[in-house]
Specification:
This protein has 349 residues and is α+β, with helices and mostly antiparallel strands. Helices cover 37% and strands 21% of the residues. Strand 1 and strand 2 form a beta hairpin. Helix 9 crosses helix 12. It starts with a helix and ends with a strand.
Length: 349
């Protein structure tokens, strides 16, 4: 069978299975996944794949330590409910700058933050014991929101003096980490990234001078790739490759620039950057609150939209996050305070 006959056969099979051809103005079906799930080819394929293990209640009990963490679970039962709920969610978008040149694109990442005072939240009913809410009280609650915005270049967009959009992307990421918008309790996102990097031996402090440095494993310039541990001064935010002479930025340590392309779609790069930013921004607030106002932090419950795990190139920072969060927990408990509750919320469809 030649290629033309194969395509006709494919179209015929889809027609026999009731597949719909898209037309201008036709909206995508919210239940289109059902057609895929019920497709005989998909069913046959899944029959060959072993199912994932499904734990039962008795299996979960076996995973809970009996002794060493028993006191911890008991303390959790007696802990007070948080007075404040701090929630964070991110989104990313890639847009065409000019319709005449659709390949020129820009990326936009937004990290939204909301803080709810639970005392005020519990008072939103219009009258006592009513099932209706007071819209004015809801409007006042909505004022306790904020966001961090990150503008990043896409394909065919670069700063003067940069070698490529790829370099501009990396430079822009550093600029965002140093921005005044990200400053909290006097610290920028780069300060918080340094604290995390210390935990995974990706940064150090020179004992003789007190200078701080990030450690980058290799030159990120694709035509170079010089493999050598390079010291990037925190004070500058960048250094230079000894081989190619190109700049190496402190935020290159995140490696979110690796999927970036100079001349194509960068949705993957923006998605991975957003995923890492969600966790670092969350850490940025929690860590600096802990240093500035531990009593307030002990009354906070944190909800992140998505898992607490980090996937992709930035996954190495997950261990650092968990280690510092545990240090915060232990310190709060030693001070007779509640440890902040940090939850990653994963929705089921």
């Amino acid at each position: 069978m030649n290629n033309h006959q194969g395509q006709n056969g494919l179209l015929l099979r889809h027609a026999q299975k009731g597949a719909k051809m898209p037309f201008k103005g036709e909206h995508g079906s919210k239940t289109a996944h059902n057609d895929i799930r019920n497709n005989p080819d998909v069913i046959k394929f899944l029959e060959q794949c072993p199912d994932i293990p499904r734990p039962e209640a008795k299996n979960i009990k076996e995973l809970i330590p009996k002794d060493e963490d028993g006191d911890f679970f008991e303390r959790c039962k007696k802990a007070r409910m948080p007075k404040y709920i701090f929630s964070l969610d991110g989104s990313n978008y890639e847009a065409t700058i000019d319709r005449r040149y659709p390949s020129r694109k820009v990326g936009y990442i937004k990290i939204s933050v909301v803080v709810l005072n639970m005392d005020h939240f519990n008072e939103i009913a219009s009258v006592e014991n009513s099932k209706y809410v007071d819209p004015m009280k809801v409007a006042r609650l909505q004022k306790d929101t904020d966001c961090l915005s990150f503008a990043l270049p896409g394909s065919y967009v670069q700063f003067p003096g940069d070698n490529s959009p790829y370099e501009t992307f990396r430079r822009s990421l550093l600029d965002n980490f140093l921005s005044e918008e990200s400053r909290f309790c006097g610290k920028t996102l780069l300060d918080s990234l340094f604290e995390l990097s210390l935990k995974i031996s990706k940064a150090f402090i020179d004992e003789s001078t007190g200078e701080k440095y990030f450690l980058v494993d290799k030159c990120p310039t694709r035509t170079c790739g010089h493999k050598e541990i390079l010291n990037i001064p925190f004070s500058l935010g960048y250094g230079f490759c000894p081989k190619c002479g190109n700049r190496i930025f402190a935020t290159d340590i995140l490696r979110v620039h690796e999927p970036f392309t100079n001349s194509g779609d960068n949705t993957a790069a923006f998605s991975r950057t957003r995923n890492v930013l969600e966790h670092i921004v969350l850490f940025h607030y929690i860590y600096n609150l802990w240093r500035e106002n531990k009593n307030f932090l002990s009354e906070v419950g944190v909800i992140l939209d998505g898992p607490l795990a980090i996937f992709g190139e930035g996954a190495k920072f997950h261990g650092a996050l968990m280690e510092i969060y545990n240090e915060i927990r232990v310190d709060c408990e030693r001070s007779g305070l509640n440890a902040p509750v940090i939850i990653g919320l994963v929705s089921r469809y």
